Amino acid sequence: MKVATAAYDFDWLDSWAQYEDKLNRWVAEAAGQGAELLVFPEYGAMELSTLDGAGVAGDLERSIRAVSDRMEEAQALHQRLAQEYNTYILGASAPVVDGPGRPVNRAAFYAPDGQQDHQDKQIMTRFEREDWDIAPGGPLKLFDTALGKIGVLICYDSEFPLLGRALQETDLILVPSCTESLAGYWRVRIGAMSRALENQCVTVMASLVGNNEWSEAVDMNTGTGGIFGPPDKGFPQTGVLAEGTLNQPGWTYADIDLSAIANVRADGHVLNRSHWVEQTSRVDSVTLSPL
After folding, report:
1. Mean pLDDT throughout 25-49?
2. 215 within 8 A of 12, measured Cβ to Cβ
3. Nearest CA-CA partner of 118 in 45, 179, 36
4. What's phi and psi for 75, nearest 5 deg?
5. 36 touches 287 (CB < 8 A)
6. Phi and psi of 85, rounded to 5°?
7. In the predicted model, is pLDDT for residue 51 greater than 80?
8. How confident is the model at residue 282 (pLDDT cuts 50, 70, 90)?
9. Cα 39 from Cα 151, distance rounded (Å)
């Protein structure tokens, strides 16, 4: 299959039609290159707050609520595009109010046959906890698709190996991210590459890029698209299948052979995925050795 992952930048939106045109251009471009799976970044939906004007877009809590209010309409748009272009789409995540509590960080996943589901972020960063007051959402899911088994670890979630291990049956783990600094980008990238190594699978990282002075929430963004595998048989020795140019908007593409994943899991130079369980007895027997 061919995968497309986004380095996505914001526009100031004066109308819903402008957003529709933008999303259509992005999806049409990737589908025109033969991509069967498109991955948008974390909090990419925050640009929808501009539709309610500068006062709302520039206020953290009001912008969160404004975006949540528009997600039903955004989901209908993504669902239509997935069907029209016959492609799977992981939509840009958004703060979504789902019940009486605080909003969750949710990325919706759309299939070309009209079905859709979502993945919520599991572990919040300090900014999400202390400033946004975003809540952990529902459980991790394993999506069984025509392209293989797919999991989603939203940004910070990719930095936790036990979350990755819970998705050990996946062929691909999608990692939509939103990182302010270069250090933040590399934390998530290292996490994504680590999960590819441990699970002997492919990880697909999307990034939000560009600066937006109008926003308190996503004012500075650093990153690029990247697609990673285990540095082992059938994969590049660096583990990097493809990477974009830092902070340059656009798609990054890679062709992924699911048989390469099966082969490296069965007969790689190392077998991290199979040998994971051997850690348990080792960590339980750590002893203090004074020197």
Report:
1. 98
2. no
3. 45
4. -65, -40
5. no
6. -100, 5
7. yes
8. confident
9. 12
DSSP β-bridge partners for residue 144: 149
Q: What residues have CB less than 8 Å from 232, skipping those under 6 apart?
A: 200, 264, 268, 269, 270
Tens-digit pLDDT profile for residues 148-181: 999 999 999 999 999 999 999 999 999 999 999 9
Distances (CA, A) of 105 to 169, 207, 212, 255, 262: 24, 15, 20, 29, 32
Write out the two tokens for 167: 């998705």
Q: Report, as an integer, the average pLDDT of 20-37.
A: 98
**Can you tell me the distance from the alpha carbon of 242 to that of 253, in angstroms, rounded to the nearest whole number?**
7
The C-alpha angle 28, 86, 137, rounded to 5 degrees, equals: 90
Reported confidence tier of residue 17, pLDDT bands at 50, 70, 90: very high
In the block, residue with structure tokens 């859709």: 116
Closest by CA position to 117, among listed 143, 150, 148, 83: 143
Which DSSP category does 258 fall into? Answer: H
Tokens of 66: 């404004």
Give CA separation, 100 vs 172, 182, 282, in Å: 33, 36, 44
Q: Measure the N-to-C terminal CA separation of the chain; round to a whole number of Å.
A: 54
Mean pLDDT lowest among 67-76, 116-125, 151-160, 280-289: 280-289
Q: How far apart are CA 279 and CA 250, in angstroms?
A: 40
Nearest to 42, CA basis, from 271, 221, 215 = 221
Pairwise CA distance, residues 82 & 212, whole Å: 28
Give the separation between CA 60 and CA 42, rounded to whole angstroms: 16
| Rounded-to-integer distance, Cα 282 and Cα 106, Å | 37
Mean pLDDT of 135-152: 96
Token code pair at residue 250: 């656009």
Return the number of other C-beta atoms located less than 10 Å from residue 234's C-beta.
Answer: 15
Pairing of strands 2-9, 202-209: parallel
